[in-house]
Amino acid sequence: MIFPDYRPxxxxxxxxxxxxxxxxxxxxxxxxxxxxxxxxxxxxxxxxSMPGQYQLSVDNLVKTSKEAFELxxxxxxxxxxxxxxxPLATRAYAKDGIVQKATRALKEKLPDLAVITDVCLCxxxxxxxxxxxxxxxxxxxxxxxxxxxTALSHAEAGADMVAPSDMMDGRVAEIRNILDENxxxxxxxxxxxxxxxxxxxxxxxxxxxxxxxxxxxxxxxxDPANALExxxxxxMDIEEGADIIMVKxxxxxxxxxCRIREETDLPVAAxxxxxxxxxIKAAAEKGWLDGKKVMMETLTAIKxxxxxxxxxxxxxxxxxxxx
Length: 323
Ligand code: PBG
Ligand code: ZN
Hints:
It is a single chain. This protein is α/β, with parallel strands linked by helices. The protein has one domain (about 25-320): TIM Barrel (Alpha-Beta Barrel). It is built from 11 helices and 12 strands. It has helices at about 15-20, 60-70, 100-110, 140-155, 170-180, 200-210, 230-240, 255-265, 275-285, 290-305, 315-320, and strands spanning about 30-40, 45, 55, 75-80, 115-120, 135, 135-140, 160-165, 190-195, 245-250, 270, 310. The strands form 2 sheets. Strands 1, 2, 3, 4, 5, 8, 9, 10, 11 and 12 form a 10-stranded mixed beta sheet that branches. Strands 6-7 form a two-stranded antiparallel ribbon. Helix 7 (about 230-240) packs across helix 8 (about 255-265). It is globular and about 70 Å long. The two termini are about 35 Å apart. The structure holds ligand PBG and zinc ion (ZN). Zinc ion (ZN) binds next to loops.
């Protein structure tokens, strides 16, 4: 394959050829839309650091989900913003919690839309950590039961899939157990298996009001410098019963997505997180780059790296481009 015998430009000379040899094809089927549920009616609070994203009361959340579903997006993932917080994250596993309510409404109005629920405690604890605390220590084992109860209450509300994002050790097994004991053995777990301690979550913490009140998440989320450890985390979650494996964030971690893709034959998801969204939005607002083109290039790159599924705040916008 040496010039002039081989000329790579031959197959790039027109759109028909380019389409024919395109290796990665992004589809609406790959997209999952994250949504923030808040109590009230008619509420649509803009999230300042995430242009185009809102805290939505259940009625508006159903509307946005309907728009996404009609554009072909198969699933949403729900995050809740509770009206009160306490040390034990009581509102995370309350029957009438905000995610439970939103799930029930969605399953009633849009039964064919898959509802995935984020399972974590940080939006619900008064200290903002993803587990319960003992002094300044995040108590792993004491958090497992609350996480499992949260997952079960989402299942009882009608969730189609649960997605633990807390990064406590052993939580996938704990959740699998409680689901199986309660006749939810058919409910899949999407595990945030390789979740890094990332500054790219900044805008999300404004959106979900979930910033830790002391310290940071480095004792449970992964060190961004580590790749082999991601393989250990993924292997562990698969053994514990995860059905889909997630890498998060996506963009600065394309190498991790690629390695995990080779490591497992389970479906791999990647979370195109809030900071990745906001960077593109901010630069586009300034006219520094073409927001739509960068969005499509970014999502295609995440898929090319090996992700089957992409959680992205761009889901609706990208679906419009793909339709
Ligand atoms: C909470 C959670 C976070 C995100 C998803 N679930 C934030 C965090 O871990 O602090 C981040 C999502 C995003 O940035 O878009 N466990
Ligand atoms: Zn959390």
